[in-house]
Amino acid sequence: MMKRLLLVTMGTASFLVVSAQVVSSVTEEPVPIASLGTPNLSSFYDADGDGVKEYYDLGKLSYGTTVLVKRYHWKAPGCYGSYVPIGVPDLSSQGNGMYGMLLHANNDGFPDFSGFVFYDASPIHIALSETDGAYRLMNRAYSAYPLDVNHDGLPDLFAFNATDWDILYQNPDGTFTATRIDTLSRVQADSLVARKAEEADGKFDTGGLPSLRDGMFVGGGHVTDESYKFTQAIDVNRDGYMDLVGPRTIFYNMGDNRFVASRQPGELTVKDLNGDGIPDYIYNDTEGKRVYTRTYLGGDRFEEQTLVKDLDVTDIHCYDFDKDGDLDILLTFNYNEQFGFSFLVFAENKGNGSFEIHENSYKGHWTFGRCLDYDNDGRMELLAGIQNEDDDTAYHPYNVAYKALYLFRLDRMTGIGEPQEALVESWFTRTESNSTSADMSTVGIVMADFDNDGRVELMADTVCHPEFRTAVGYWTYRDLPLLQGIPANEAPQRMSAPSVNLDRKSGKLKVAWKPGKDKETSTVDLTYALRIGSAPGMDDIYFSGANADGSRRDFRPGNMGANLDATLDVSRWKHGTYYIAIQTVDPMGKGSAWSDEVAYEHDLVQAAFTVSDDEPAAADTLVLTAASRAAGLDYAWDFDGGKAIKASADSAQVWLTFDVPGEKHLRLTVTNPADGTEDVREKVVTVQRVSWQQVSHEALGMTWPVLFWDMDGDGILDVLDQNGFYVNDGYGRFEKLGTIFNSNLTVESRAGMGGQAPVLDFDMDGDADFAVRNNKGNLILHRGGRDFEALDANPLLVEHGFADLDNDGFPELVDATVGFYAPSEFYVNKGDNTNFEKMTLDDGDGNWIQIEFLYDVNRDGLLDIFSTRGRVDGKWKDAFALNNGGLEFDVRYSPESEGTVVAFEDMDGDGVPDKVVTYGNDGVDKDVIGICFGNKDYTFGTPVKFVFENAHSSRYTVEVVKIADFDNNGCPDILVYYDFYEQNVSKKEYAILYMERDRSGRIEVLHNQELGFVDGMADVNHDGVPDFYHAGNDGVTLLRTGIPNTSPESPAHVRATQEGLGILLEWDDAYDKETPAMQMRYNVSVKKKGAEGEGAYIISPLNGGNDKTAVIPGVYYQKATRKMIPIERFEAGQEYEVQVQAIDLWDAHSPMSETYTFTVSEQFIAGPTVTAPRKAVALTYNVPDAALQTAEWDWDGGTLLGQEGKRFEVSWDEPGLKTVTVRTADGETATKNVMVRDIDLSFDFPTEGLAGTEITFTLPEAFAQASREDIDVVLSDERVEMLLRVGSREAKAVFPDAGDYSFRLSVRDSVCGVVESEEKHIRIVGEVPVPVIRLVGIDAATGKNKVTWDMPGMPDFVTTVNIYKESGRYNAFDCIAQVAPGAGEFVDTSSNPSVSSDRYCIKLGTTFGVESPDSRVHSGTHLMLNKGVGGAVNLIWNAYEGGIVDSYRVLRGTSADRLELLAEVSGAHTAYTDLNAGDGTYFYALEYDETYSDEWQPMARTSEDRSSGSGRSNVVCTDGAWTVVPAEQLNVLAIEKELVLTPLQPTLHLQAEILPAMADIRTVNWQITEGGELASLTQNGVLTAQGKENGDIVVCATTVDGTNIEARVTVVKKDFGILPQSVTVTTMEGTTQLTPLTGRLHLQASVQPENASQLVAWSVVQGAGLATLDEDGVLTPTETGNGDIVVRATSLEDASVYGELTLRKEGFSGDGVEGVNAGQMSVRRVGDDLWIEGLPEDSECGLSIVDPSGRVLSTEYRREGCSGRISLARLASGTYLLRVVTGEDRQTFRFVK
């Protein structure tokens, strides 16, 4: 046997690296290829067009920054001998410097090269060829496989990162635009298709609707194995959308960059097994060791058949082995020592996709390779080799794979014998595997027709025994005895020219061709290549992979696969002529000559465009890619507030940014000036509110931030870093402070409780000092400016967090929980920041709490404690420790929280903190964040749960990253992440739950974000927006948003009042544009007047008295507008200065307030500091009677109402700050500040309006600040709709009909009580009529759309008829004209009826500046035609929308202006077939009459007044009509699982499945043939129940391509009109006891039978004064009274059917007094007095009344033995505490006045 083996050593060569493909000329001497390695047929490519394929050695040969790829040329007499080095960018960072794949990514005919084929850690590198022969590097894709996802002929690429998937869509200029794709759940996809069906009613597009057959989702699972490793983009389900196919995953394309992931149960092979044109599936289940098929039968039915099991298959080959016209399957099994055999198993196709199995077994150690017709006899052979078993040779067995190669002849499927004669004998190496049983895919053997002579050549790695020298060996067919004398493989027959058809509305071009023929190959084994070029013979538009003579450039199948048609998106093609041809490709890689070319003239005027992301973030760049600009057309963009920052030269691409978040309507209008026609397309994107950008610490000039702080008082944050202090240059760049102290300073990172900054004013000089361990001590004192000093302070300072619990200006040392079964400890500051005393929160009886959260719960200026770790009687409970001052706490317990409380924040801005809860540990609500909104009585509502639906895995939990007000609306938002892991894929996703004042929330998923662990927030780059900073090497994450922020105003009326226990500071709420009053924070400064330096401050502002200094992130600033400072901190006679600074939620701050000065004296006036106009306030001046008698009072405009001893009652009529002054004869002076607070409820409201229309008005400012419980509206007519939103001043009112109305607003305030506005009156003069369109049709004179109406007797206030036309988005209408009402018609000159119908509605303009409701939408008919069977002409149209058409008249003629009646068809039909058209050119149109139903209101009209009119469609012509592939089978499917209509499923979305898949007309005519009164049916198959009758509905679908195939389904309508029989009422909590601990109860009603309506109305029928019941069944107890409450749930279907439940209210004192921690005492109400019984006789006692804010209102009482009496006469209505102190005993009662 002859063989040719080249062993020529390559000499030294040097090359000049230039920017061209060919670096040096072809070498003349033969140069061998050292090794093939793992063979890849893609490495062979005919680059020079001579029909002979060159071999590309993708190994690395570096030259500087360039890699030289060696391109070997075929040299006679049959080998690759010389090469051309090609310079491409160096990919040494990937793939060990090797190239992973040769590919074609830009349609230029030159090969491109990739690094890795796939890589998930970072983008791979792809070297793309340029027009000048050079290569450029593209490094944005994660996969090198070209995927034409949008089927426009340009290869696209796929990108993947930790959080998102992107398609890199290729643009006509060769650039790529990254477009994020969404992965939908099946439920989301069903909803999407249903919505598209409803929106596309009667509008026919080539693509149709996405398919969602149940049978496609065989593997379940949203998360997929190696989901990004897609190798093909093919339309698997033939719905017109290219799907992404990987080894085990299919992403089904839903359009608009949305995909449904379907994880496949094994390695996937896609083939059409039953010849219906729809791909079927062959699965290799490697885990279950089973190979099986799933064949689609139609009607969403699949047939599954196991081919083989219990054995690992080596390879799957699909060919027509028995030449009977269908695909058979060959499964190969290499020799396995465990079984002792190798196998060939044939699955013989019986013609319908079912298979008969034939098994062949062999004892030989066979390894099988590629299956081809190697000898050109029309039958397949299988290349095989015997595994090396010679252990006695000098070769290591792992280095040599085979001694010879053989061919198995597959002439039949059974009885295939082992080949006896070798094809070739030689030593063949194996380079990739260390197993002797490796298959041939790991061996360097390639057998193919390299030189295009019609016969195969063999090329393989060989070893020369015994020298171990390797080289590539070559054998031609002449060297192989088995192949000597074989005939050459003939090319397939030349095909006829393809047909083309453009759907002008969708911009889709359908190209179709007939099946090919080949002498040697069965038709089902052929593939097809499509060529489209901008000039004859070119394939620059759609790359074919073939030369002009048809010879193939590579060994790939044709680019169309086995399909016989292709639907291309040509919307972005430039105007001009395109040349389209088709060829057949056989399995040997032989291509037929090209067919004749079809010249397609592209003149489409379309405004289609794509967006790179439909959910960009504010400040992100959004890329819009439009259809290429054509000469003579006007293109106009509308960016809806976006700013174009860049545009391509032809405006086909625009780069946008948005400053303001929200929904944006992007629009492109293309106008043809020649005829005025235009096309408008619109897309909606949701601009997210924020995004983040990571910046390394090094890029900012720092190393490891400890805390941010404004060192120099310039308003810009500097940083204390682990390497010392760094100064900010104002733009986020930091430079180390150049001082001796700082030069060698090193600092340890630390944070206090809740991430609190370790900052305090150690020496009380007003500056911030830092309790951090450093190389010079553990405390850094700021001496002013840039002067610092290090000290060794008490080590406790650097071990704990800071919290001033007693308001003395010296922080206590507090930490969160210190032990699981122990109370928390904290250290009390003894007033010098040096000495501390340990305390615990326990009562000595085994009850204690652990500190979790610090928060001023009751807004009294004192920090309280909330904990979910309260231990009471051995049980865990939630606990409030309410700070009473002086380090005394009242502890209140409530039931233990569900889930895990991760935050304690005011999430709705009502001033009451709420609980944020996660459920990661309970295994149920893992995808949920819960918020328990707090109540003013220290209880919480049931959790409001927000579901993060994008979290798909069962092995994740939602983790809270940060809670902050990211969108600056005044409510904290919740940033979370969740990740899921499934085999080789891990994906992390971040999302933000944006909260609103009305307690609603919206979840936005963040894209392309990796945020890591957040240490804190600070405005690092001084752009006014808080950023994230991270410890370690995570850098800084800058918040990017266009949301503005303004600084707050300074607090007004700062004042100080001396009380018995201390000095009370108060100020008014500061105003801020974005942050509501309840969320404002305050920086308080109290300073000795004239003092400076150490000890100058009582309360330190930490800013050195400079109000320009930036706020310190992480420092606690109080929210309350009051602060009680212990009197011990002051000196009598000393003057003090108070200033307060306001801080918003983004750390913007106001200037310091005006300075208020006060002096502490021995005598003071006690009493309330806030009151309302004309409301009495009781003041007490506790001096000797003699001094009181000579005292002179100045009431500052107030009126003295009465005096009782030392107690004075005063009131003021006017609001404002009042200062009461008293002077005694001995010269003593005392003052008292009282703020008389009024609420301004004035607002503007019109005096006239229209019925049924929204009247918008602005509420008083008080409404924006009030909570939901404090707002009320009193209406004169309960039918009036008043739409208010908590936290907003915008309101709307709708009045039902003509008449006079009035209403009044009220706000409840803790001081002013209920304040009412003045009554507003309005006269409603009438209702705006609803206009009616008479008809939309074609104007005969202009050929444009005409809208007509006829509305006599319109009211005088109607001024115009406003014409609205649907824009490029469904149901989005733009006003295109305003005309006089009497005009009666409007011609839309911008319409183009020849392309599509348009939808219109009209509104009426009025003198009131409002429009009427819109009319019903009308749309004329759009007619299309095609050629059907036997030359028949098929007419198809969409049904007239907006009115009832009894019949359509079909007109035909030989010219457009000479049309005659051909036929009249029912208005229920949308198709007609003209069987008698004959030869010649014909024109067709439709004419119709729409009966004008009288919808005009309120005028009454008789039937004689009704009018009718005629409409006409566009005219179509048979010239160039498309000849369709007819339908053969029709099935009716539904998106829903059951074909039933019920009250729970009132709509079905039916879909017509037409087979074969290549049938051209995919639409049908829908009709209800039985049960038409039970439901309505649209022309897109949307079936909707109507009425309450039940029964069967028969729906019939009929093909409209002339075949008239029918398919019927019966839909059962049931459960409508079922009357309720009974109602059962229960509580969600499972209890009928209503106590102070249970709080609210949530009622639920169950109506029987279950299929009856479950809607009920709630009411209280007994005990109405004991509780309130809202419409949702929430029962809230009043604060007084006990007893039985009977609630009722009444069916809304039948008021006589109801259910009741009796609940017992107890634990509330009947006189409104409730013991909080009462012992043996009892308290009862007697009139306006409280009587206390059980006081000890031998002990002093003190009684005091305290309001909810903690202020003591009264301490005066009368005692009579063991009883005490205290008056409530002067108390305003509200809830109060009564405190009774006797010796060491303290008891508390709650009561209501």
Strand content: 35-45%
Shape: globular
Provide the residue-averaged pLDDT: 84
- Using DSSP, what is the number of strands? 138
Structural class: mainly beta
Question: Reading side by side through the largest sheet, how are the strands ordered?
Answer: 11-12-13-14-18-17-16-15
End-to-end distance: 115 Å
Rg of Cα set = 42 Å
Sheet with the most strands, sense and barrel status: 8 strands, mixed
Individual helix count: 5
Instruction: Identify low-pLDDT runs.
Output: 1-29, 94-98, 201-207, 219-226, 391-399, 431-437, 980-986, 1492-1508
Report helical residue fraction.
Answer: under 10%
Protein traits:
1793 residues, mainly beta, 8-stranded mixed beta sheet, 5-stranded antiparallel beta sheet, 5 helices, 138 strands, disordered N terminus
Description of the structure:
The chain is mostly beta strands and about 1800 residues long. The protein is about 0% helix and about 45% strand. The protein has an eight-stranded mixed beta sheet, with helices on one face. It is globular.
